[in-house]
Design a protein that fits this description.
The chain has a 6-stranded antiparallel sheet, with no helix packed on it. A 5-stranded antiparallel sheet has the order 9-8-11-6-13, with no helix packed on it. The model has no long low-confidence stretch (mean pLDDT about 95). With about 190 residues, the chain is mainly beta. The chain has one domain: Jelly Rolls, CATH 2.60.120. It is built from 2 helices and 13 strands. The chain is about 5% helix and about 40% strand.
Length: about 190
Amino acid sequence: MKVIQTRLPEVLIVEPAVYPDSRGLFFESWNRDRYEKAGIKCGWVQDNISISTKGVLRGLHFQNPDSQAKLVQAIEGEIFDVAVDIRKGSPGFGQWVGYNLSSENRRQLFIPRGFAHGFVVLSDRAVVSYKCDDLFVGSSGGHVLWSDPDIAIEWPMEGAPLLSEKDAAAPLLKDLPASVCPVYEGA
């Protein structure tokens, strides 16, 4: 297993060890001991699966309170997965990182608590799995507009994305009340 730091130090790319043979391949998508040694110490309590078609953009979503860390991977197809630091007082506030996750590269993206998350589907269809370290609490859910010009995510897509009504009407990060954003607690 290889762990790659991103320019937002808390967000990590994980490349599991893959063992191909004439029958196909095998890899561990989660092993508590290996991931803890790599600095990902989460007691996962919920797994989610999302199935979407090309051009669907989900996000940017977060929870506060009741934040969730996530480990995201594309089981089928390809997505561009994004994490945005929305922690008030963080040196990385408003900054984003984005990476292609696919069934071909088998990469995972670890997104810690305090970050908004979203992805756009690049393939005809994508099945996305993500582990969460806390249960979803609808009343804690929040959104940031996917096209917020202050964040300026460079989404690799042609044309307008397919959005939910909530995602299309999400506020800009600067318009979120201070009480809605998580607070940076230092390194």
